[in-house]
Amino acid sequence: MAVHLVLIACLAAPPNTCQEIPLPEVTSADVVSCNGTARAKSEEWQSQHKDYLVIATKCAKAGEGEAAPAPPPPPPAKSE
Known about the structure:
alpha+beta; three-stranded antiparallel β-sheet
């Protein structure tokens, strides 16, 4: 089962928002292998993206870690 690296990175300048950034091109055969290469790959990504600061990494099965669709809004309240 393929596992890919996901970076958790924040903008280095205000508003300093953070987000998960999947790197589907960085795949490994398993989580142990992914964790073994995570630091080097995150440092490589960081050197190419100076506006961000990588604060953590995680390894996820292909297809995991993606945001779920937002639930639909509630129906409008009925006025009588």
